Amino acid sequence: MLARTLRLLIALEIVVYATIALRGFDASPLGAALGVAFGVLAIRALIVAVTYAYAWVFHSPAPRLSVPQALRMAFAEYAAFIAVFVLILPGEPLWMGADRLRPERDRLPLLLIHGYGCSRGVWWWLRRRLEAAGWTVATISLEPVYTSIDDYVEPLARRIDALLAETRSAQLILVAHSMGGLVARAYLQRCGAVRVARLVTLGTPHAGSELARIGIGRNARQMEPGSTWLRTLARTKAMPETVAIYSPHDNYVMPQVNLELPGATNTALGGLGHLSMLFSPRVAHVLLAALEKRNAPSAGWKLRSV
Question: pTM score, two decimals?
């Protein structure tokens, strides 16, 4: 289970930092505690910096951000990284609880699909916003973390069938972040779009990401630009109406043009990082608008905000 693994890794990390502070620098208990906090925060700042370094090297043309805008974006992404990987995912059972499902006559249920290296916990903030807007929301955790994307299709199919049975609905809407969008498309390729009325992706590397080249697992290899897996996926014909929401300043998917999906309504929101999309009121607003549209969005519907 991802939550248990993350808790163990963080505990080991704390022990290492505390040992270095106490034995290497003869620090006091307070000094050791401060050293541990600095180490935990610093290593994650370095990880975020590496993602932005990749984003800079492989960036696509995008609206230029001012220095204050860029700093706000980077800080929000760093805060989202800390929230997701230090607080929310390690404590996912505590934060999330069971899905609150009910039969719904006027709206289709939503199924939220997380991305690479994560669990259903990433939806903690957005799930609350969607439920407050009146949607019935279900989630899924895809495990093991570093396997083939194809291995997630069967668990997703079972979750879809169970959700439709529990809510007494013939169809649902899939909302997916990052790699979750590729999982959804792999499901549609194998099972068709009979049960899926709409797909909304957030920051999905539809054509892969250069950052995947340093990732772990078969799913990372599949997300490398030009991979055989992505070329096969691109031939999928059974697609419902699809909206791809993304940031032209994404720091996990680059070049950022790979976030666009041919044939979908591609909606760009500038000045956002990859993880901070999950905590953004702007993303929530555009997502809710995409969910409310009963007819296919017009091809020209595009929002750019910096």
Answer: 0.93
Distance separating alpha carbons of residues 260 and 267, to the nearest angstrom: 8
3-state secondary structure (DSSP) of residue 219: helix
Q: How many structural domains are present in the chain?
A: 1
Q: With respect to residue 26, please indicate whether it lies within any of the assigned structural domains.
A: no
Determine, yes or no, domain membership for 167.
yes
- The closest alpha carbon to 178, from 274, 264, 249, belongs to 274
Distance CA 12, CA 6 (A): 10
Cα separation, 212 vs 210, in Å, equals 5
DSSP 3-state of 306 = coil
Kindly report the CATH number assigned to the domain that includes residue 284: 3.40.50.1820
For 25, the token pair is 């620098």
Which of 52, 2, 60 has its CA nearest to residue 268?
Answer: 60
Q: How many residues belong to the chain? A: 306
End-to-end CA distance of the chain: 38
Residue with tokens 């999906």: 261
Prior bond of 144 cis (ω within 30°): yes
User: Which residues, 6 or more positions from 177, have their beta carbon under 8 angstroms from its beta carbon?
Assistant: 112, 113, 114, 115, 118, 122, 123, 201, 202, 203, 204, 277, 278
Six-digit token string for 71: 């700093």
234-252 pLDDT, tens digit per residue, is: 998 778 999 999 999 999 9
Alpha-carbon dihedral sign for residues 223, 227, 269, 197: negative
What is Dmax (Cα atoms) for the chain?
A: 66
Q: What is the pLDDT of residues 31-73, one digit of tens each?
A: 999 999 999 999 999 999 999 999 999 999 999 999 999 999 9
